[in-house]
């Protein structure tokens, strides 16, 4: 959440040249309503917007650049490095001009690499794309398709029929679209698509300091599903936006499937899909955003992007309801239309969802500026207004007033979403993984981080707790909340608004909750006089041999003996890691230093855990093969890995995908050990905790983690 609000401010700074100095003075700002706020920002004409928009950097497309990347992939492919070659071919696809020969060649070459990796369906799609782009050697591509079909037949006749159904892109979309996300379900009833069949009954109550809250309406047993909900809308989080060298994302922007073979939008090359079919299904929504992606605009304003996505989903239905509510009236001003819009209840979500404008305060003008900019974008660079002109003109004909209304709606949605969004984080692939993870390279190809910004209307009704009795799991665009204990009938159900708060100290939690959510938490953890869990993480042991007492890192001196806190001393692992090479001797020195520093860094402390993580990653990324061929060194690194996992187990082990990510160095070390045929090491207790953490993973990532575990850890 803090990341989102920071993005709003930073985005505004970047767009500052677009706004006049006469626009809203934040220091004197007083919020009245969304419409009046937007009126204050309406100072700029379309000509100036177009000039500014055109001045933004363009995406770089070049046949020569694409061919050079593809040739690099060919070198890797000839060496048998199909994963690395497939990544090069994907980068070549991202930089090749539309309908060019370089684009066709990149798709054709990637099909060969994917075939080697056993990704037959994606290889078939690549052949289709190569033919669609007029590949110079179509006979070769047809032959390649034949080989792919034969491979599918050998795998399983049943699976072959299932996978090939609808693969011919010229025949239209397959009827089986159940795996795809929000656009395939836009026509369904919202209540129906958000509810899970196995959910427990709940009630919404109001009263007292808690305000609105949710309680169970029947007993709930530990492990049962409390809520299962599809996101009303979600948008990908793009931390990077390199216009010259785009980085493929292995996450589908439509169905949110991870570990995919990326098929980009050919226009913007910033959104990626698991198949051409999924890409086509998403076009209704993406068409409104594509031009903005070309200029790397939306990644700078993630919350407003989500508001735009929500508006795209609901706008047609809203206009229909607005037309019914107006009766025979014709409106002349935006204020008249706005009054009726606030009465609309057809969607049952946004118009009545609360927005804490008092808490947002001075942050509202930056929101207003950004949504006004987006409205200018919609009017000047998309067909958003044109597509709804007939219906809108039945209500009110003035286009300028409609721009004001749309901007006000985007502002209202942004303010409502500001404290009710969910940042979906999980393990995601950074490269091609094939049908299974390559032994010893799990740490290099898997990362943990934010994937989507999403709005779950029903989940947003729960109150916050720093110590919730639930666990949350994201599978694509679907959020599942499970009971972590037995709930009695009438007991409140709460969730943690920001998972980073669970490891923060009491004062830090209170400050952050008040700033971001306006919450004064009264959960059982916040009522405790001391928060031993968070204090333990931030302690060191006095380096005086005669003292050895523990104290907080923030103290200037040891409270017991007065020895000054020595930052360089306690950071020796990091400085030594940075200064040494990656030879076997250097890692033995690092291990000895790690053991020595354990006398000064308590178990489960952040500095100890961070030092362990740094050593393990340096070891696994070492280019000197003698390092990984050293059995004794492998054994020492496993000791560090186990110590690290024991340090984070209390915080992350129970159904947490981050613990699964933290386990990747140990799993890689075990894989290397098994490949060499070395003696097994007895760490069964740690392995059980690792296996349990896989419950929080989803899709192909989960399956491959489980397979890797069974192959190398058991």
From TrEMBL:
Q: Name one GO biological process term.
A: methylation
All copies of the MYND-type domain together span 252-290
Name this polypeptide is given? SET and MYND domain-containing protein 4
Q: Which is one GO molecular function term here?
A: N-methyltransferase activity
Instruction: For this UniProt record, give its keywords in alphabetical order, as a comma-separated list.
Output: Metal-binding, Methyltransferase, S-adenosyl-L-methionine, Transferase, Zinc, Zinc-finger
Superkingdom classification of source: Eukaryota
Q: Which organism is it from?
A: Hermetia illucens (Black soldier fly)
Region: Disordered; residue ranges are: 175-203
- List where Basic and acidic residues composition bias occurs: 185-203
Sequence ranges assigned to domain SET in this UniProt record: 200-498
The record, for PROSITE patterns, names: SET, ZF_MYND_1, ZF_MYND_2
Q: List, alphabetically, the InterPro entries matched.
A: SET-MYND_domain_protein, SET_dom, SET_dom_sf, TPR-like_helical_dom_sf, Znf_MYND
One GO cellular component assignment for this chain's record is: nucleus
């Amino acid at each position: 959440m803090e990341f989102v609000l920071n993005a709003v401010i930073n985005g505004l700074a970047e767009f500052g040249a677009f706004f006049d100095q006469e626009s809203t003075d934040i220091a004197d700002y007083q919020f009245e309503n969304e419409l009046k706020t937007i009126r204050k920002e309406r100072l700029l004409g379309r000509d100036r917007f177009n000039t500014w928009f055109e001045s933004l950097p363009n995406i770089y497309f070049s046949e020569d650049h694409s061919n050079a990347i593809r040739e690099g992939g060919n070198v890797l492919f000839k060496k048998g490095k199909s994963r690395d070659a497939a990544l090069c071919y994907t980068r070549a696809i991202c930089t090749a001009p539309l309908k060019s020969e370089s684009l066709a060649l990149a798709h054709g070459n990637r099909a060969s690499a994917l075939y080697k990796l056993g990704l037959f369906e994606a290889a078939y799609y690549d052949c289709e794309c190569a033919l669609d782009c007029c590949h110079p050697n179509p006979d070769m591509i047809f032959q390649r398709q034949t080989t792919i079909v034969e491979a599918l037949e050998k795998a399983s006749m049943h699976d072959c029929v299932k996978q090939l159904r609808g693969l011919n892109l010229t025949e239209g979309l397959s009827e089986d679209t159940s795996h795809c996300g929000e656009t395939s379900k836009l026509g369904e009833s919202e209540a129906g698509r958000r509810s899970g069949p196995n959910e427990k009954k709940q009630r919404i109550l109001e009263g007292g300091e808690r305000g609105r809250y949710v309680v169970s309406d029947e007993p709930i047993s530990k492990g049962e599903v409390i809520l299962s909900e599809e996101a009303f809308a979600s948008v990908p989080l793009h931390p990077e936006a390199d216009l010259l060298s785009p980085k493929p994302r292995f996450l589908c922007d439509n169905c949110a499937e991870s570990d995919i073979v990326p098929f980009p939008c050919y226009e913007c090359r910033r959104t990626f899909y698991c198949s051409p079919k999924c890409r086509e299904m998403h076009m209704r929504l993406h068409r409104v955003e594509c031009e903005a992606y070309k200029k790397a605009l939306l990644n700078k304003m993630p919350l407003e992007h989500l508001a735009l996505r929500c508006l795209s989903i609901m706008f047609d239905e809203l206009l229909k309801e607005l037309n019914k509510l107006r009766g025979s009236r014709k409106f002349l001003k935006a204020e008249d239309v706005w009054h009726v819009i606030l009465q609309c209840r057809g969607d049952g979500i946004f118009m009545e969802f609360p927005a804490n404008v008092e808490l947002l305060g001075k942050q509202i003008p930056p929101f207003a500026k950004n949504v006004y900019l987006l409205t200018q974008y919609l009017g000047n660079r998309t067909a958003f207004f044109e597509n709804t002109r007939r219906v809108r003109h039945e209500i009110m004909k003035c286009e300028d007033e409609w721009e004001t209304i749309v901007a006000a709606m985007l502002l209202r949605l942004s303010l409502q979403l500001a404290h009710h969004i969910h940042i979906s984080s999980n393990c995601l692939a950074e490269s091609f993984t094939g049908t299974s993870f390559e032994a010893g390279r799990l740490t290099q190809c898997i990362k943990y981080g934010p994937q989507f910004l999403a709005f779950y209307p029903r989940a947003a009704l729960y109150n916050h707790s720093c110590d919730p009795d639930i666990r949350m799991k994201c599978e694509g665009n679907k959020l599942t909340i499970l009971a972590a204990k037995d709930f009695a009938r009438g007991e409140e159900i709460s969730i943690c608004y920001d998972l980073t708060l669970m490891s923060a100290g009491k004062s830090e939690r209170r400050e952050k909750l008040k700033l971001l959510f306006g919450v004064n938490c009264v959960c059982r953890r916040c009522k405790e006089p001391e928060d031993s869990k968070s204090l333990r993480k931030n302690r060191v042991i006095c380096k005086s041999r005669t003292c050895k007492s523990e104290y907080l890192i923030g103290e200037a001196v040891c409270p017991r003996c007065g020895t000054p806190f020595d930052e360089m001393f306690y950071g020796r692992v990091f400085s030594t890691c940075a200064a040494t090479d990656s030879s076997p001797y250097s890692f033995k020195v690092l291990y000895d230093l790690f053991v020595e520093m354990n006398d000064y860094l308590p178990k489960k402390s952040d500095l100890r855990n961070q030092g362990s993580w740094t050593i393990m990653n340096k070891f696994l990324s070492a280019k000197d093969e003698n390092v990984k061929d050293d059995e004794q060194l492998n054994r020492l690194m496993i000791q560090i890995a186990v110590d690290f996992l024991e340090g984070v187990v209390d915080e992350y082990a129970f159904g947490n995908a981050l613990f699964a990510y933290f386990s990747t160095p140990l799993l890689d070390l075990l894989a290397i050990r098994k490949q060499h045929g070395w003696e097994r090491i007895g760490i069964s207790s740690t392995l059980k905790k690792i296996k349990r953490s896989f419950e929080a993973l989803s899709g192909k990532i989960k399956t491959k983690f489980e397979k890797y575990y069974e192959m190398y850890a058991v």
